[in-house]
C-alpha cells in the first residue's frame, strides 16, 4: 500500500523503475559496503541497494513510513532504521558504531532542507567515502557551478573546497509521486583527500564566503569591509575591486587565512 506523501516533510516518492535503476547503477553498491540512506521513504532505492549490500542503515524522520519499510526489507537483507532528523546524526560516530572506516551515503533529499543537509555532510566528510543525492536540478547546478557563472555562490565554493562534485543525470517530475514542480538531478560527491583540502580554519573560510556573497553586485572591498582591508586583499594577489563570483574556491581560503 502506498503511503500518502506529507507536505510538511517535503516528500516526493520516486517510483519510476528506470530512474531507480540508473541511481542504483551510479552508486554501484557492493557486498560489504556500509551504506547509509537519508530519507528512504517507501524504499524505492533502499530495497535494490539492500539486495546487493545485504546490510544497510536508513535514517528516517517520518514514523509512519518505518513499519512498512521494515516489513518490505525483512525478506531482502538486514536493514537498520534510525529514527532521527539527519541534521542531528553524527556520521563519524555512526561509522564507528557500524565498524566502518567510511560510509557511503545516498538519498532523495527534501528540497526545502537540502542545503543544510549538504553542509552537515561536509562537516563529517572524514567519515564519508562518497555521496549520491537526488536534489532539485537548480541546486545541483549551483553545486557544480564554476567561477563566473550566474549561479556560482556560497554553496558552490563550500562544497567544491571539500568534495569533487559530479552531476550525473536529470530526473523529470513524472518520476515522482506527487510530481514536483521542477526537474530533479542526481549528483555524486566524493570528499577530497586530506592533503587536497584547504589548510585553514573552516569557520573563518565560511565567514569570508558568506560575507563575500551577501551582496553579489558589490566588490570584495565592500563586502569584506571590517573583516579584511583592501591592502591585505591585494597582498594575497586578489583585486579588491573584484566580485565574489569571479574568485576560485581556493581564493576564499587565502582571504580567510589573512583575516
UniProtKB/TrEMBL annotation:
Stored InterPro entries: KsgA/Erm, rRNA_Ade_diMease-like_C, rRNA_Ade_Mease_Trfase_CS, rRNA_Ade_methylase_Trfase_N, rRNA_adenine_dimethylase, SAM-dependent_MTases_sf
Keyword hit for Cytoplasm: yes
PROSITE patterns tied to this protein: RRNA_A_DIMETH, SAM_RNA_A_N6_MT
Location, primary (coarse class): cytoplasm
Domain Ribosomal RNA adenine methylase transferase N-terminal intervals: 19-193
Cellular localisation: Cytoplasm
Stretches that traverse the bilayer: none
GO MF term (any one): 16S rRNA (adenine(1518)-N(6)/adenine(1519)-N(6))-dimethyltransferase activity
Keyword Zinc-finger: no
Family that this chain belongs to: Belongs to the class I-like SAM-binding methyltransferase superfamily. rRNA adenine N(6)-methyltransferase family. RsmA subfamily.
Function noted in UniProt: Specifically dimethylates two adjacent adenosines (A1518 and A1519) in the loop of a conserved hairpin near the 3'-end of 16S rRNA in the 30S particle. May play a critical role in biogenesis of 30S subunits.
Name of the protein this chain belongs to: Ribosomal RNA small subunit methyltransferase A
Organism per entry: Luteibacter jiangsuensis
Gene expressing this chain: rsmA
